[in-house]
Design brief:
mainly alpha; 6 helices; ATP_synth_I; cell membrane; transmembrane helix; transmembrane; membrane
């Protein structure tokens, strides 16, 4: 399964292995969390977590892909980064508004879904603790 996901991400432009690791784990944690919420929580919590996890995962996916591309640009990388940031921020705000007001998603579940990113980065940091790095 990992090789299928790795190949999928590589074909989408994720050439760095650690970035693929982060994006892959982000989707795995989101799906695992959604299964836990489906088993133990009522529908408004499931909807909230699902929307939060999907928003976080999509934001993370596009940010990671853009960051890989911008690393290689010598000048003018700030403009596409800022544009992408503000577009994602506006779209995320609109989706959160619709989810809370119209779909009655639980706010705490939304925050838990968005927090999957933090858990992913924490796990990634823990995996780096024991590794040795080359010094410049």
């Amino acid at each position: 399964m990992n090789t299928l996901v790795e190949n999928f991400l590589y074909k989408r432009g994720f050439v760095l292995p650690k970035v693929r690791f982060l994006v892959r784990n982000q989707f795995y944690l989101s799906i695992l969390g959604l299964f836990v919420f489906i088993i133990f929580f009522p529908v408004p919590w499931i909807v909230g977590f699902g929307i939060g996890a999907l928003l976080g995962s999509l934001n993370f996916y596009f940010m990671a892909r853009l960051a890989q591309e911008l690393v290689h640009i010598a000048k003018g990388a700030a403009t596409p980064l800022l544009f992408s940031f503000y577009v994602r921020l506006i779209l995320t705000g609109l989706v959160l508004y619709v989810a809370i007001v119209y779909w009655n998603a639980n706010i705490f579940a939304l925050l838990l879904g968005l927090s999957v990113i933090l858990l992913n980065v924490l796990i990634f940091g823990i995996t780096l603790v024991g590794q040795k790095f080359k010094e410049a």
